[in-house]
Amino acid sequence: MDRYLSRKRPHSPPPLTPDDDDASTDIKLAQLVSLFPETPQDALIDILVSCSGSVETAITTITEQNQLRQLSKRPRPTGGAPGTQTSLTSHIHVSPSKDESGGGVLSQRKRNPVVQKGKTLYLFSPEDVAAHTSCTIIHNFLPPEQANALLLELLDESQHFSRYKLQIFDRTVESPHSTCVYVSTPEQEAQHTNDYTYGGTYHTNIRQATPHLRAISARVQNAVNEEIQKRIRDVYPDGKKLKYQSPREWMPNAAFVNCYNGPAESVGYHTDHLTYLGPRAVIGSISLGVQREFRVRRIAPDEDEAAGEKSARTRADSQGQISIALPHNSLLVMHAETQEEWKHSIAPAQTISPHPLSGNRRINITYRWYRDSLHPRNIPRCRCNAHAVLKCVQRKRDTRGRYMWLCYMGSKPGKQGCGFFQWAEFDDDGEPLWKKPQTNEEDANAPNLINFAD
Known about the structure:
Layout: H1 25-35, H2 41-50, H3 55-71, H4 108-111, E1 120-123, H5 126-132, E2 135-138, H6 144-157, E3 165-168, E4 171-174, E5 178-183, H7 186-195, E6 197-198, E7 201-202, E8 206-208, H8 211-215, H9 217-234, E9 254-261, E10 267-270, E11 283-289, E12 292-298, H10 309-319, E13 321-326, E14 330-334, H11 338-341, E15 342-346, E16 361-368, E17 389-392, E18 403-406, E19 421-424
Parallel strand pairs: 1-13, 5-8
Antiparallel strand pairs: 2-14, 3-4, 5-9, 6-7, 9-16, 10-15, 11-14, 11-16, 12-13, 12-15, 17-18, 18-19
Helix pairs in contact: 1-2, 2-3
């Protein structure tokens, strides 16, 4: 259970704590179920009774039985999906509660634990991820054979991936992992290369979607849309979408594929650019190969110290972090509040367990929906005559939640920005309200991106 408590990350798995003689049978059973989800509960109860109620002895007994059972079986097929740990909360009865509005579901704020500064809360089960973060996760998302075929296909593709460069404080730095952008057709590939910019530069590493990448797109689209509706129903106030969140069906038309080769390759805390995604963007992210840690933390306003105890707790949330395990063949959905209210990262690992097919490599596919209304032909240009980038104010209390267009040329190696700034206005559905048309003759006839599932 220690893994579900807020703590500093250990260098090795935490030792088992001595049994508490006063702990109820339900608590002890919950511990065993979380560790051995594939063992029937009746069998766990029998073992617990035979061990005189000692959880530690029961764990040793079950582990030895499983090892003997594995010796009598053939090795598991290559690339098989690992078992997942279940949530303790699903096995411990909690009296139902209602939020202040009288609804049957606790609000997200009430369910969130306080994560202390410098501590990490480790989450493994889908129930805990949904309750305590802005994400939801689906384990064993694809049929195993399809997941393995997709992994092998993208491992072969990864030889074409590249590392982008950007300028930070007058220093040119290189991304700590390799990446590539995939679109639907050769025509879209050419358009993306010529029209879309990232970090102040045009992205030259654009490729057409591979057969397996295209084959799973409809499944991803359906799953993400189902998760969006669940989130609105179960978490958001009054069961309604967030302001600026699009009411339209989420339809991915671009995919960023990242390769993390080895435990040291990572990406620091960040939020994704909203320039072509718009406000309250949703991203569907598939993990293949080696399991890695996806970490998130809240963003709190700078002025919270003067706002009392309640804000101090919010700041503690933001300065602590939550770790989500991303096993092979899992789909993580970053919901509409993620980019504005949270930051996320892939943490470096001291060690990793090699995957049978990918070795030390992890492949990550992030499906994105580029809105037609935010096509490059509509994006404001700064005084450098480059496309501005869309960002959200996240820390300054009096303007927090507002969107702005900024010059980003200062992030391009060897360039300096012009200081361009313009407030961005959107309707309640996240569609831009342009003060004047942005389109020039050169961009007027540029086609929109095509949905992968079409």
